[in-house]
Amino acid sequence: MVAAVAPVLGRTPTFAVFKGRHHYLCAAKIGADDGDDGLLSDMEDGWVGQRSRLGADIARVTDWANDTDTGDRDDLEQGVSEAAWRQVSTSARDCVGATNCRWGAECFAEAARGRAREADIIVTNHALLSIDLMHNRSILPDHRLLIVDEAHELADRATSAARAELSASGLDRLSRRISTVCGKEVSGRLAEIADAFGAGVAHAPDTRLVALPAAVGEALTLLDGLCSEAIATIGSVPSDAPDAMARNQSKTQLNEVRETAIRCLADAASDVRWCEGDGRGRSLVVAPLSVAGLLGEELFSERTVVATSATLTLGGEFTSVAASLGLRKEDQLAEGETARSGSGDGPPWRGIDVGSPFEYRKQGILYVAAHLPRPTASGLSDAAADELVRLVTAIGGRTLGLFSSRRAADTAAEILRDRTDLPILLQGDETLPILVKKFKEDPATCLLGVMSLWQGVDVPGDACQLVVIDRLPFPRPDEPLSQARSAAADEAGGSGFAAVSVPHAAIRLAQGVGRLIRTSDDRGVAAVLDPRLQTARSYGPFLRKTLPPLWYTTDSEKVTAALGRLGAP
Fold this sequence. Notes:
The chain has helices at 2-9, 27-32, 48-65, 82-88, 108-118, 126-134, 154-162, 168-177, 179-182, 184-202, 214-234, 244-266, 292-299, 319-324, 360-363, 382-395, 406-419, 432-441, 451-456, 480-491, 496-513, 532-535, 540-546, 556-567; strands at 15-17, 121-123, 145-148, 164-167, 271-278, 281-288, 304-307, 328-329, 348-349, 364-368, 399-402, 424-426, 446-449, 466-469, 524-528, 551-553.
């Protein structure tokens, strides 16, 4: 980019990388540490060995804090654990702001923001861009041109940034934190509400909550009242108060919890609520039904925006992704309206498909196993397993297996290990970087996994010459956001499946098939073991048009022969 801009600008441009606050050391946390295990205050329940290792990591970071000019985690050699970094950094939600912090002049995040303001080109990520949009464009420095790469993912990133959640464990931690500034009585009542809230969400389903369970609603109402009381108890905080940081952080966190409780109670048509859980407990989550309005109003305001991606065209058109960004096509302008006026349902857009440097029809084959039965269960059928073994054996490894469920990936690994002598790597057995490194180094290897492999693996050359996809990646029918968006499309007189599920599958499928051809020298086969890509008349052609234009076939014998040639020494 620097080389491309230099002739236009007349000089070599400067640039800065701008990251979220949690990427930087928090000078307040380092400066406020009392040296007596202070930074381990959130680890009361950790066992001794865990605290010891965490303490060693924190000690190394605090030593580094005296030498670093950036405070950027990426500049810390030999890194530290996520748990350790949480103790020495802060999030945008918890930060009280430089003007309210006695260490504001030493803030690494503010220094990074200052460097960004002086740069010609700023590099940031979707998450920070989304947060900037939700805060009235107050985070990123002013700019005239915005280039959004991987723009097909922006709506999902913005949705994630706009979601909020509450958990019993988070409320319990907050009750302990506010004890010193609000008193033990208020802290104890918050702990009781946390228990009641935890009991309520424990029995709630994982699907969309059209109505809140009574116990959850009661806990949220009590939470709203208690947070208001606690905020009033803290009152205004003078900047020179000795406990200013603790009081300001408590107010910020209480405000956020109260706003989330009110949002969950509001039952707004624009929001979707659901419960989800992991090993740390269950949470109540609320997220926007759509961010198209937000993006349409804020993303394109007062600047030129260029959105790019290899998967912007779905079914051969830009329409679906443009709609998710709150855009409307230029030919939808009202009579007399100019292309830059932006009135109506959203700003207008122009699209151009610049093609690809790859000769897809010569470099690769798209094979659909149309003879297989339609997938029914979430695992891998016997027929699909047989087809997988046949394909992998023909090429002798060199296979990236992309599966729609953990169960299917596990089954595939077990079958391949039992019926072949090839090294089989399974996502989860080791960290992903180690698995990908092993996959690159040994062409006889097969790497199998789930969704993160569909997007995050770049293995050019002969180590990856067969990409196998077990089924079309439609979203789960009970996934809350997809469920709500499909219902909204149905209620508006359209088709939820066509408007939500098919575009979702198209993007994921294109990303998966895109793992095959990474350079102009790559050769290989993308095999889809789901016959619906060939047989489904309503959406099969749409999905195929979304994929790279590989040579297409359903002939298993031709594919086996091609794989044999690729695998020949």
